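ok so I'm stuck.
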Amino acid sequence: MKSEEVKKELRKYASPERKKTNERFCKTGEGEYGEHDRFLGIKGPDIRAAAKKYADLDLKDLGELLSSEFNEDRVCALRILVDRFARKKTTKKEKEEIYKFFVKNLKNVNNWNLVDISAPHIMGEYLAENKSESNILDKLSSSKFHWHRRASILATWAFTKRSDLKHTFKYSKKLLHDREDLMHKAVGWMLREAWKIDGVKTEEFLIENYDDLPRTALRYAVERMDEEKRLKFLKGSF
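replied:
not stuck anymore, here's the structure
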């Protein structure tokens, strides 16, 4: 199978030193959120080179890669899917096929790096163009799996880029009381992106929900404001 060729290609670049770096970066220590994950020790540029080389891998082989126990194999599969989705020649029907494949395999998009490189660019972009299907975000934002919840909020980035902020506000508000710090970071990140598009509406949201905003989310949300305004928000003196 072609997926085995990709795995062999990737393993040419593996190193023990990089393995330690990747494991630390993705929190694989005991009790950390990435404890389940395994790494080979491959740098991002090498994964992207392999993804480019095997850009036309079929969905069956991509499914094999996505089911790998090693994070870098899954990253490669997702890079291929993201690049394929974004190609100008990709048809609407093909985009729908990629989206449905992505959702079907969402259980394997199970670390923050995997969610971040794929959810906004496949799920988000598809839903922003097919808004009647966006109710999937309700289900994902209520999931017991924090990776699904993270995917739901990051998918709203595609709506935000189209100046449609209501999805970011809706799911940010829903996730304000999430127990996971990585969710607070994701919410803050998406609110920061919303602020870039419409500062007035985003600041209104921050003020309205200030008492419920986790500190981490707030810091991320206001970090691009000018220093005076940023400090006011951090102090709650607006």
